[in-house]
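Problem: given the chain below (364 residues), write out its structure.
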Amino acid sequence: MSDLAERVRSIGEHMDAGYGPERTTAALVCLHAGLRRRRARRVALGSLAGLLCLLAGTFWALRPGHETAMPVTRIRPEVPFSLSDGSVMTPLGPNSRLVAKTISPHLVELELVAGSAHFDVTPNQERKFRVSAGRVAVLVLGTRFTVTRQGERSQVEVERGRVRVDWERGQQILDPGERGSFPPVETARAPFPEREAPTLQPPPVPAPAPVEVDWRALAQRGDFHAAYRMMRKKARPAGLSEMDDLLLAADVARSSGHAAEAVPYLEKALVLHQSDARAAVAAFTLGRVRLADLNDPAGAAVAFSRARMVAPTGPLAEDALAREVEACFRAGDKARARVLAEEYVKTWPSGSRVRAVRHFGGIP
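Solution.
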C-alpha cells in the first residue's frame, strides 16, 4: 500500500491541470459577462411583453363596436358619427359644433355647442342617451329627431319615436311630428293691485292693461288653435322673414287643422333661406303637406325632389326619395316612379322603405 501511495503522489507531481490564477480570473470574467447577457435578455423580453399588453389593450379599446368612456371629442361638421348599435349623429351645416362627452354601454352624452344636428338613435332600454344644448337637455330611448341651438334656447323637432325635453323649471314630452323651442318664453303677469290704506282714500288707480300673449308662446305651450287665431291677425306670411318663425307658423297652421295655410310660410322659407341647413326640413314638410293634406301628389313630388337637391346626403335624403316615388305614382307618372325606385334600391338596398318603394315603383 505504501508503494502504491508513493506512486500516486509521484504521478500527481508530474501532472499539470492547466488551471492557474490567470486562467481562473479569465473564467470568472467570462461567467459574469454571460450572466449580464442573460439579464439583458430577460429585461428585453419583459419590455416586449409589456409593449404587447399595451398594444392589445389599445386594440381592445379602439376595436369596432366597442364603446367606452372618452374625453370630449368634436364631431366634424356635416360628417355622420355612428355608434356600434347603428345610432347616427349628423351635424347640419358648416357652423354646427357637436361634441361627444361620454360614450359607454350605459350612457351616451353629447353636447350641441352651436348650429343644428340630426340624431337617429337605435332603441336601447339599458342605455341613457342625452343631448345637451344650452339650457336644455333632450333624453332619448329610441327615436329620430333634430336639435337646433338658438343661443341659450334650443328647438327640438321629432320625426319618429318620443323624446323628453328638460329645462330648469320643467319638462315636456314631444311625440312624432311635434316641435318646440325650449325653455318656453315666459309670459308677463299683471301686477297685483295695491291694497288700500285703512284710513286714507286715495284716488282710484286705473287697472293696468292686460298683457297680450305672443302667438309664439301659445304655440310653444301647445295651444295651436289660440296661436293660429292670433297669428292670422299679426303674423301673416308677408310679415315674417326669420326661418324659425316661418317654420313655427307652418306648424301652427298644420296642427290647428289649416294645412293649406302652411304652404305660403314653407315656400317663403325656401325662397329666403336656400342655404340654411333647415331648408331640407322645410321642403320635406311642404311635400308631406301637399301629399297627405292637400291631395296634390304632383306638387309633393316637386317638394320632395327639392329636399333631396338641398341636402343630397343629408339625414332626410332617403325618406325624401321614397316619398317622391310614392308621389309620382299617385300623380300617375309611373315611369318616373320606376326610375326613382330603381335609384332608391341601388342606393339603399336594405333601406327601411324598400318594400313600399318597390310597390309604388312597380319593381318586383
